Amino acid sequence: RDDLPREQIAWFHYRLGELELRSSNLDAADRAFHGGLERNPDDIRILGGLARVASARHDWKAAIAYGEKATAVQLDPTTLGTVSLAYAAIGDTAQAASYARAMSVSALKQPGVIHRAWGLFLLDHGTRDDRETVLHRAREELKVRKDVYGHDLMAWALYRNGRLSEAKREMRLALSQHTQDRMLIEHAFAIGVVAE
To answer: Which of 21, 70, 124, 133 has the greatest CB tally within 10 Å of its CB?
Structure first.
């Protein structure tokens, strides 16, 4: 449609890119994100998406370039985490730690429930205090919002805090709807629960 603002058209491309990325369709995600950039060249969400595509391809320099362009405009915890991982992959531990700290501060200062992707990053790359905070906030969220990804976050938080038997129970709940998502399968495998 010609009557929509370019930001809104770019948002549709962004959402499509996110869906493709979640399904590990990297080429399709890349096309969707680039289609969005054609409409809105400085869209930080799309730049962050391109950073995640580059990271999934292990193109660390591109992940850093896209991520730094996005975070120069606005600090997004997901993009900060992606850049942190990219710097770690190329061996720049100082930059990796700096971006991880920025991600932790940015994610944990948000009020209310924790964004699930940010929580997962902190569980894998944060401090012990970060892991305990994510566990507490995931538990609080499950009181009001019980869904597959909430149970997955809770399972991973329990697992990363050394509570394996509880993590297995939560992971079974996360898998109960047979959602086809690579991340759920990877978490289930790590926790020791077989996905059916």
So the answer is: 70
